[in-house]
Amino acid sequence: MNDQIHSDGSDHEHGALGDAEYAEFMELAAEEGFGAEEVEGAIDEAGHGPLPVLAVVGRPNVGKSTLVNRIIGRREAVVEDKPGVTRDRVTYEAEWAGRRFKVVDTGGWEQDVLGIDASVAAQAEYAIEAADAVVFVVDSTVGATDTDEAVVKLLRRAGKPVVLCANKVDGQSGEADATALWSLGLGEPHPVSSLHGRGTGDLLDAVLEALPEAPAQRFGTAIGGPRRIALIGRPNVGKSSLLNKVAKEDRVVVNELAGTTRDPVDELIELGGITWKFIDTAGIRRRVHLQEGADYYASLRTAAAVEKAEVAVVLIDASESISVQDQRIITMAVEAGRALVIAYNKWDTLDEERRYYLEREIETELAQIAWAPRVNVSAVTGRHMEKLVPAIETALAGWETRVPTGRLNAFLGEIVASHPHPVRGGKQPRILFGTQAGTKPPRFVLFSSGFLEHGYRRFVERRLREEFGFEGTPIHISVRVREKRGRNK
What we know:
six-stranded mixed sheet; 15 helices; 3 domains; 16 strands; Rossmann fold; GTPase Der; GMP Synthetase, Chain A, domain 3; alpha/beta
């Protein structure tokens, strides 16, 4: 079956659809009362490639989280952080002038025993690693400090486009303070009050110029080079041991990026006769003085690795109960739209009782990702390492799967006939037709006569998986409701 639904490699201006399929689809849309512009807009919105990433960096108390809240349009980033506060979310989705992008917030944690400089540098390094462009926030009322100068050096070394934000300019009188920041050598300082919103529009216009466009969806075209795997998990679950085990046997080359204080290491490793790029979140040199902020830094490291990867292998310590932190890391990978494999480490240490309870935990705590391939491994002994490659390949195949529009609509017709949406308020919304707008991960747009409840969307997703596979990948479903027409129409 899969050979019928994988990418057909078509590369038309209609993205997923060939010319004949597109014409047939638009005819169907017109019959159901949808205009061409409305349909194409919905498909474009759902069918973009990976979103570009913007990092917001700067020393403490310059207003980074306030600016992030302003950019994403809601109060979601934590504004008043204290050392040791766990920050689960560090990435957010934003939109400006019709363009969508991701924002990495580094406003989380302030100071360690070595002082502010070290923690600022660590935050900036992790965030810059994931980013396509950077907003560097400076407090214009204070001016450039030694810490700011240190961050400038990091930015120059990274070579990413930088937009300089002179924050806390609340009126005309602060404009001169902002002008003084030309001295940093990063180009024009944009005077902003992130608290009041002053100047943020001009700043975001500059951000859009610095960010690359979200790539158009291309079915059947893979990015060149080895497939990229992020090995993620909470601290001390055995990520380093697993990486060392696979690297020790067939290491091809180690690519060390010199010149940074954290020495990130991406390993090109041969497994199962294939070369893979393992993006290591464990190999980052531990800073013993940053233990209080360890959870926050772990979140930043994980976010950076996931953004660079195609598939996330989440390592879970099978000898311990599945933790909230394990679930949050899985959620991070799913929300980022990456292919997913779950690897249960230390399997060789489990007795029958622990195995029984672990299976119950998986059923209850991880039911929402029952679609992810599972591998039971031991990073110490190397047990079942050979099963890792087939699981990764399965997840990537699901991630890239495309269902032809005709076949999808036949399937949706069967669903509507056998399991119609419940009647709500005297009305029964109905799926009229749909299309797959993108892959990596699979994204579907359903066009309906009314609002589809979350439970019904989940049911449609479950049936999609039963019918077409999609093993190892999240599925995004968006719904476009037909606008109400006049009585005579």
